Here is the input.
Amino acid sequence: MSTVVSQAPTGASEAGIAPHTESNALIKPGYHPRLTNEDLAPLKKQTWGQYNIFAFWMSDVHSVGGYITAGSLFALGLSSWQVLVSLLVGIVIVQIFCNLVAKPSQMTGVPYPVVCRASFGVLGANIPAIIRGLIAVAWYGVQTYLASAAFMVLALHMAPGLAPYAEVTQYGFAGLSALGWVAFMVMWVLQAFVFWHGMDAIRKFIDWAGPAVYVVMAILCGWLVWKAGWSRIDLNLGGIKFQGWDALPVMLSAIALVVSYFSGPMLNFGDFSRYGKSFDAVKKGNFWGLPVNFVFFSLLTVITTAATLPVFGELITDPVHTVGKIDSTTAVVLGALTFMIATIGINIVANFVSPAFDFSNVAPQHISWRTGGMIAAVGSVFLTPWNLYNSPEVIHYTLDVLGSFIGPLFGILIADYYIVRRQRIDVDSLYSMSTKGEYWYSGGYNPKAIQALVPAAIVPILCVMVPTLRGAANYAWFIGMGLGFIIYAMLNRSNKT
Here is the structure.
């Protein structure tokens, strides 16, 4: 079906458009200030090509968390080929869903929370925006803490005398050592510095960060294989425990884990696809950045992890610890810097940009994109993410409950754009508070979206919280997404446009 979109004009000279010579925003005089600022308005120019999208996914995949996740799949008791099939199926599902969620933002040039105004109402869009923003704040803190661990490895290697300051019992505050605080704040400031310079600076950073991580990872992998000898490397990290049809449930769980891991960036991928120069460029970038990149990265990480057993006498799943074991200052410095850069990359693209747009959407005239991002960054410190990370049960339930909303939000957004509105969005109405506006509902909230969200979120939450339903918890995203999609489509079956 062809896409029909009421799209913002491509030039500022068109009638009725306020001139913005220093901005990439197209703001019409009729846009309501409660819904508009230069960060949320449609873009004048969309300049990202397929490489920029490819680099985005490299930065999103190449992190300590991505390394551990990929390695963990090979320890499920499946054979290597079964894991690779699961990885490929899972990441292809992510690719398909990312293409679906990318299209409305790319075609209109607006970010995720603004697209949500079509389904939730111009004010109701704050519901999905705040939910996604809160999840990003929590993960932003955890990822910053993980990156600071690489900094600490580097600091202790270069200055062993700092060891007492790495002990919480001797020099600690709020559960973190003095050196830990220094490391955390250094990473915090570095990330804020990149973010503060805007989306173009972020694009330039991720354009080289992802490939740079690949180079160092390949060197680390090659060195470990050389030290171990290929014949001593066993890629079946956990041993083969499942054969034939017995492996199918485990493979399905692995597929669900891959999709769940990317569910956050997938939901707000429109924040980045809006910059794509064409939808075709976005799709090509997704292809190279997801199935091709992710499977290759997974192979690289599992070979590296498997090689740690014969080289160090123990299986090490954390790359930071692997680097710390190497008796070479050059290797430690290069490795630590690499994983610091990798984690900065994923943190900015997955957990900084999202709340920047999400929180700005709440009060556009008072909260700019930069302010929204800094609210998230400051909030992450007060969460004391090291305490969350050291208590897996707390972070597990907190993020699982919040994550149970991601599936329904995704399902509602997709159902609204593809089923209810048949790929048509009136951009001007996204910024209108007029009672005659297409996306205006009583009070500014679309009751049908909320009626779909509540039951679609409750079921996944029950799967997470109720012990007897824990078997379905791995599929919480799919359950929530399916319910959100179906319920919202049924509620709107009489008014498809």
